[in-house]
């Protein structure tokens, strides 16, 4: 069977209603996200990166076009079926580490809560070891640095059993050393055959991409494949 891409977008348009009228944030977008590797949605502020990431995450439904996930046309699915696909396959990491985590829970309990949200159980110790956080299982979240918290957010996607991790500007709120931790985590997931899609204008994250979808003013301005990259 031919390798169906993880995501296929055709003619995707996204509108936002505003008091001043409809704003079209994405125009006629067409691109694919392959299985495995890091695909980066790159471009300046306002180019539509976050909007497209929400479409890929099956959070927002486009006004126009088709979004296939692993061959399934998600735009034809009802709310419950989309929610099930999200729960079973997709993990999302937001730019603010604490938006991904529950502040009143310990580190390990954050992983267990993430697993329960996908109706799974997880080996929290193994995930923490993988993230270099084995010694922190009982710690409160605020004892971790921003980079460690963001690592844990990726760990929550692992705990949920998500084969696809969608990350919105995962390094933009972090200092350089913390961002390094996140870049290492993304490279580690990619090496382990996860599919990672990141919206970013961080040059170091873009440089890790095996595919870069360049956006400008809500349009796809080019797709760059960098086959043979480690990530
Ligand atoms: N909820 C909304 N209501 C109205 N317009 C919106 C909304 N969200 C985004 N937009 C507009 O859609 C366009 C694309 O926004 P989007 O946030 O997707 O871009 P971005 O590339 O992720 O930008 P940034 O890097 O600043 O996060 C922008 O013109 C933005 O103002």
TrEMBL record:
GO CC entries: plasma membrane
Residue span, ABC transporter domain: 9-231
Family annotation (InterPro entries): AAA+_ATPase (IPR003593), ABC_transporter-like_ATP-bd (IPR003439), ABC_transporter-like_CS (IPR017871), ABC_transpr_LolD-like (IPR015854), P-loop_NTPase (IPR027417)
Gene3D superfamilies on file: P-loop containing nucleotide triphosphate hydrolases (3.40.50.300)
Alphabetized SUPFAM superfamilies for the sequence: P-loop containing nucleoside triphosphate hydrolases (SSF52540)
Superkingdom, taxonomy of origin: Bacteria
Keywords tagged on the record: ATP-binding, Nucleotide-binding
Stored SMART domains: AAA
Any GO MF annotation of the entry: ATP hydrolysis activity
PANTHER family per record: ABC TRANSPORTER ABCH.1 (PTHR24220:SF86), IMPORT ATP-BINDING PROTEIN (PTHR24220)
Protein's recorded name: ABC transporter ATP-binding protein
Naturally occurring in which organism (per UniProt): Amycolatopsis albispora
């Amino acid at each position: 069977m031919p390798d169906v891409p993880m995501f296929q977008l055709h003619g995707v348009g996204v509108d936002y209603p505003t008091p001043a009228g409809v704003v079209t944030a994405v125009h006629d977008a067409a691109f694919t996200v392959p299985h495995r590797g890091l695909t980066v949605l790159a471009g300046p502020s306002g180019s539509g990166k976050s909007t497209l990431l929400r479409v890929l995450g099956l959070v927002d439904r486009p006004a126009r076009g088709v979004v296939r996930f692993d061959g399934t046309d998600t735009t034809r699915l009802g709310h419950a079926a989309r929610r099930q696909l999200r729960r079973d396959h997709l993990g999302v990491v937001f730019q603010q580490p604490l938006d991904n985590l529950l502040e009143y829970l310990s580190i390990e309990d954050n992983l267990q809560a993430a697993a329960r949200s996908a109706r799974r159980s997880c080996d929290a110790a193994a995930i923490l070891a993988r993230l270099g956080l084995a010694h922190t299982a009982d710690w409160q979240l605020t004892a971790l640095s921003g980079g460690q918290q963001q690592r844990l957010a990726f760990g929550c996607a692992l705990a949920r059993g998500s084969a696809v991790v969608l990350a919105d500007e995962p390094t933009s709120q972090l200092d350089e050393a913390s961002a390094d931790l996140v870049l290492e985590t993304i490279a580690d997931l990619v090496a382990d055959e996860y599919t990672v899609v990141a919206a970013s204008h961080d040059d170091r994250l873009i440089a890790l991409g095996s595919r870069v979808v360049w956006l400008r003013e809500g349009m796809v301005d080019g797709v760059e494949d960098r086959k043979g990259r480690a990530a």
